[in-house]
TrEMBL record:
Family: Belongs to the peptidase S11 family.
Organism: Levilactobacillus koreensis
GO molecular function list: serine-type D-Ala-D-Ala carboxypeptidase activity
UniProt binding sites for substrate: K337
SUPFAM superfamilies per record: beta-lactamase/transpeptidase-like
Signal peptide: 1-22
Alphabetical list of Pfam families matching this protein: Peptidase_S11
Domain Peptidase S11 D-alanyl-D-alanine carboxypeptidase A N-terminal as annotated: residue spans: 124-368
Protein name in UniProt: D-alanyl-D-alanine carboxypeptidase
Keywords, alphabetical: Carboxypeptidase, Cell shape, Cell wall biogenesis/degradation, Hydrolase, Peptidoglycan synthesis, Protease, Signal
Keyword Cell wall biogenesis/degradation: yes
Length: 389
């Protein structure tokens, strides 16, 4: 074997030596030498990150496993402790694992704080959990900050539709004017439409209500708004007037559908000077509370997984409903509305009622995992808060 191969083999041997093998073992990490001064097992103890600093390394301290800041709400369980020498200094390191055991390694003890991690949502920028019965927030994150909410906006549109219908079968069966070229063109563009308006077809209020609620059709929502108020502009004025009557201080609407004006402008439905509906998570939850309280049928309607309307499949994208990917039977989720635009991110207002508990309303805005985080939030509230009937 050549000299270079001998050196390579020695380096490889050093890099694969574990921290706890023996006192005095040296390993090479990024041109720095770590020496294990002592190592021992300790009673399993819960810790969480102390700040945004710090990283977890493999046993050889030659490879970074994870940055602690990417796990802001993770509880780490310490089972080993080692004193390592690095140059002229020594430090105490903990061997940690997350609950699932999927992330594990060594971290300097100063980056951790004893105790389980407090509950939090990693991805949602704004969120709230509200007790439906009392209207009080039981958990929140930046809940009073207004931001774009995409198609979650439709819960206000649907409220005003139901308000006009007022239980009248005759009004449910009224035909809505869908002849607008802009709406027809929008309906044929899958990125902004949803439910296709076929030229010459007649659509009832109930059909467009189902298309807007289940399939989140933007053109259906706009057409319904025009039916309610006579024009798109007048309807948006009604949306803002309704928000004002409820004292929603962080809610301003420029769109019946939740699409931004930058998307609506080519179809002739831009309104106002702002680009998007701007509503806080708290105000979204309050709108949802009014909708459920005044028109409880929305829970039955919103729990439908899919429905054929005028030959078109309207698919409900609420993946917390029974039988769906993220469903949890005990939460009994029966609503309410999804939303997404690149500007707003993934948004979701959900509601459910655990047996023996009060109904909960949750909102997550600009999320990446809206259903898993909603499920986690619901479980946390039911476990930690007084929500008994």
């Amino acid at each position: 074997m050549g000299l270079s191969r001998v050196k390579g083999a020695l380096v490889a041997l050093l890099l694969t030596t574990t921290l706890g093998t023996a006192v005095g073992t040296q390993v090479t990490a990024q041109a720095a030498t770590y020496t294990t001064v002592s190592s021992k097992s300790v009673t399993k103890t819960a810790y969480h990150k102390k700040s945004t600093s710090g990283a977890i390394y493999n046993q050889a301290h030659s490879r970074k496993v994870a940055n602690l800041k990417t796990y802001p709400y993770t509880t780490w369980y310490v089972t080993k402790r080692a004193t390592l020498r690095h140059g002229n200094s020594k430090g105490i390191y903990y061997y940690v694992k997350n609950t699932a055991g999927s992330v594990k390694g060594w971290v300097w003890h100063g980056y951790l704080k004893k105790g389980k991690s407090p509950f939090g949502l990693k991805y949602a920028k704004n969120a709230i959990a509200m007790n439906y019965t009392t209207g009080k927030a039981v958990w929140s994150k930046n809940a009073n900050t207004a931001r774009p909410i995409a198609s979650v906006s439709k819960i206000m549109t649907l409220y005003l539709v139901l308000k006009k219908v007022d239980g009248s079968t005759a009004k449910w069966n009224q035909v809505v004017d869908t002849s607008s070229r802009g709406l027809i063109s929008m309906s044929q563009n899958s990125s902004v439409g949803g439910f296709v308006f076929h030229t010459g077809h007649k659509y009832t209020v109930k059909e467009l209500y189902d298309a807007a609620l289940l399939d989140s059709s933007n053109n259906a929502a706009i057409a319904l708004g025009k039916w309610v108020a006579g024009s798109n502009a007048k309807f948006i004025q009604q949306m803002n007037a309704q928000a004002k009557s409820w004292n929603l201080g962080n809610a301003h609407f420029v769109s019946a559908s939740g699409l931004e004006n930058s998307d609506l402008r080519p179809y002739g439905y831009a309104y106002g000077s702002a680009n998007a509906n701007m509503v806080s998570a708290k105000d979204v939850a309050l709108i949802a509370r009014h909708l459920i309280k005044d028109y409880p049928r929305v829970l039955t309607d919103g729990a439908v997984g899919s429905k054929t309307v005028d030959g078109q499949l309207c698919y409900n994208y609420n993946n917390l409903l029974s039988g769906r990917k993220y469903a949890q039977a005990s939460l009994n989720v029966d609503g309410l509305k999804t939303g997404y635009t690149p500007l707003a991110g993934y948004c979701f207002v959900g509601t459910g009622k655990m047996a023996g508990k009060q109904r909960i309303i949750t909102v997550v805005l600009h999320d990446e995992n809206e259903f898993t985080e909603t499920r986690s939030l619901m479980n946390h509230v039911y476990k930690s808060s007084s929500m008994a009937e």
